[in-house]
Amino acid sequence: MAKDYKKRIILLGAPGAGKGTHAERLKGDLGVPVLGTGDLLRAEIKEGTPLGSKAKKYVESGQLVPDDLIIAMVRSRMSKPDARDGFMLDGFPRSVEQAEALDGILDELEMAIERVVEIDVDEEVVVARLSSRRICKGCGRVYNAISDPPNKEGICNACGGEVITRSDDVPETIRHRLSVYRTSTEPLTDYYEKRGILRRVSGSGDVDEIYHRILDTLKG
């Protein structure tokens, strides 16, 4: 199946749209790595690379990691052999400025983005979804208090760690995050729509249905 689908992909969508869930499934079906900026950042810090050492100072002080460091991490990861034939970017770019920097990286590597998929979900659905999210403090496993709770309330099935509600998974904070996303991302969607590579997919409904909508947009 993988050869019939576009494999240099950007996934866009508001917090709670399901990008991470669908990216992991696409990773298996398409055979390409997911390049999530959060994962890249943690990997660089864990490995003690020069980029990771610089980024760690910002993380430990609670500051945002500057664009130039994030861009350098993306360039480094995209240069690795497993990304030569395809990749999915999740969480990057977040602005037109980052998209322009990505264009520069792609030109250097003689690559091009083939498809940008925006998962579109109603705000009230996102608020309900994220308000129900629970996360294990120990291993990071994600639960949903309504549809997928841990077997024992407050205790992780996998590691026995404490399952909590993140401080930013409360309705007021979620609405603010959605407002910030819309402000920063609308110009970005315009940027890719003008190139003819943006596709919008409804993120409402059954998870399998949404996934197959995404697959349909990736068909060659």
Automatic annotation (TrEMBL):
Pathway: Purine metabolism; AMP biosynthesis via salvage pathway; AMP from ADP: step 1/1. PROSITE patterns: ADENYLATE_KINASE (PS00113). ATP binds at residues 16-21, 133, 142-143, 205. InterPro entries: Adenyl_kin_sub (IPR006259), Adenylat/UMP-CMP_kin (IPR000850), Adenylat_kinase_CS (IPR033690), Adenylate_kinase_lid-dom (IPR007862), P-loop_NTPase (IPR027417). Residues 133-168 form the Adenylate kinase active site lid domain. GO terms for biological process: AMP salvage. GO terms for cellular component: cytoplasm. This is Adenylate kinase. It comes from Eiseniibacteriota bacterium. The lineage of its organism: Bacteria, Candidatus Eiseniibacteriota.
